[in-house]
Design brief:
Order of helices and strands: EEHEEEHEEEEEHHHEHHEEEEHEHEEEH
Number of helices: 10
Largest sheet: 7 strands, antiparallel
Radius of gyration: 23 Å
Strand order of the largest sheet: 2-1-6-7-8-9-10
Helix content: 10-25%
Length: 411
């Protein structure tokens, strides 16, 4: 489970920004929105986090930063020596864009807290570290630092790290992460940490919302998953009773939209004449969007992992968005503590009747005059716990809204 994510000098996130799943002392919606971890050092964690803000404010960048970190941990070992890391620093400054970009996450794994982070430029890794908290005091598993003035790199290995450390070190290039290399070289200790906490989480941004190939591959061979998808789609009032996924060889002459990545997808609708099958291209955008979201969501809930979705409300009715959030915030449907991070413009989620989100689950992103974006929680605002968040937000009391001005044609 994710405890905290930190990022600095990434796109519009110039200063260090923190997204935390640690709940405040507020006991509002405690039974459904907070997960009891059973770990004394981190006994409670939030199940969801919603990020609000204006267009071009930086909401998507927060998820993109998390996605960039995860991708680097998973794939940095596959880069050759001269390949640049995909890092975009804050360019609207003459000084900071030359500094390293920094990422850090704290997470729970097998009942223990871990803290992992690294900083880098497009050319190389400057720092990397992994700490384990079996108690309140951290144990260093490994730490790596680079001195650009001396062009020297130093590794420190803790006694708690087992295995062929020097072999992993020698295999780690300047532009690769030590955690990735050790995991790929069969570290029995580090591979489960790498696989469950970096390779398994899913992050969908709005430029490539959902990999259709991934979803169809996930669904095609799992009949139970198909049944669960149909149950949700039927509960969402789509009229869909069943789905058909047919794998076939690609045809260069085929232009039908239903043919995607060698699959043909049909939905069976219940009618007065029985079930009738419709191809994908006849379905609504909302139904298609919902279908591609549900399989990974159900798998993440089953695994107790993390999913982040940019603009969850895109093409979906507000009540459907609320239902998806409620799936994560239910002990019955989410017993393993899977977590959801999402950005949205759907301000109705802030309604207090019935309440859906706690103050510490509501986050805002706002761009400052110098074009740097800040991420902050509603919990930072003092006020009544049962305030009308929706009305206060739309009035601009929390920030994170577009500053609209009068417009007229230039003459």
């Amino acid at each position: 489970m994710l405890i905290e994510f930190r990022v600095k000098n990434y796109c519009c996130l110039r200063d260090e920004q923190v997204l935390s799943f640690v709940p405040t002392d507020d006991r509002t919606l405690e039974e459904c929105n907070v997960y009891e971890t059973g770990v004394p050092s981190v006994p409670r964690l939030l199940r969801t986090a919603a990020i609000f803000g204006p267009n071009a404010g930086g909401k998507s960048t927060v998820l993109r930063a998390l996605q960039s970190m995860m991708r680097m941990v998973v794939s940095s070992t596959y880069l050759d020596d001269e390949r640049l890391l995909v890092i975009i620093p804050f360019f609207l400054s003459y000084t900071i864009h030359r500094e390293p970009t920094a990422f850090e996450i704290s997470f729970l794994h097998e009942g223990r807290r871990y803290q992992y982070g690294f900083s880098c430029t497009p050319e190389r890794i400057y720092e990397e570290y992994l700490f384990e908290y079996a108690t309140s005091r951290p144990k260093t598993l490994f730490q790596r630092t680079y001195d650009p003035e001396k062009n020297n790199e130093k590794y420190t290995f803790g006694k708690a790290l087992r295995g062929r450390k020097n072999i992993w070190r020698e295999a780690t290039r300047d532009n690769a992460l030590f955690l990735s290399c050790a995991a790929q070289l069969n570290s029995e200790q580090l591979f489960p940490i790498w696989e469950k906490n970096f390779a398994r989480p899913l992050i969908f941004n709005k430029t490539a919302q959902v990999s259709k190939n991934f979803v169809l591959n996930l669904t095609a061979q799992d009949r139970q998953l198909q049944k669960n998808i149909c149950t949700f789609l039927n509960a969402a009032d789509t009229g869909i009773k069943d789905i058909e996924i047919e794998k076939q060889e690609p045809d260069e002459s085929s232009t039908e939209e239903a043919l995607t990545n060698n699959y043909r997808l049909h939905f069976k609708h219940a009618t007065q004449y029985g079930n009738m099958s419709l191809p994908l291209w006849l379905e609504s955008d909302g139904t298609i969007q919902l279908f591609y979201y549900i399989p990974p969501i159900l798998k993440i809930i089953e695994q107790g992992s993390i999913i982040a979705i940019d603009e969850l409300d895109s093409s979906l009715h507000p009540l459907l968005v609320r239902r998806i959030v409620e799936m994560f915030q239910s002990q019955e449907s989410n017993p393993h503590g899977a977590q959801l991070i999402f950005t949205t413009h759907d301000a109705t989620l802030l309604q207090s009747d019935p309440p859906l989100l706690r103050r510490d689950q509501i986050w805002f992103v706002e761009k400052q005059k110098d074009q740097a974006s800040d991420l902050y929680s509603l919990a930072e605002f003092k006020g009544q716990k049962r305030a009308d968040f929706l009305r206060s937000y739309l009035r601009g009391l929390y920030g994170g809204i577009p500053l609209l001005r009068e417009w007229r044609n230039e003459e």
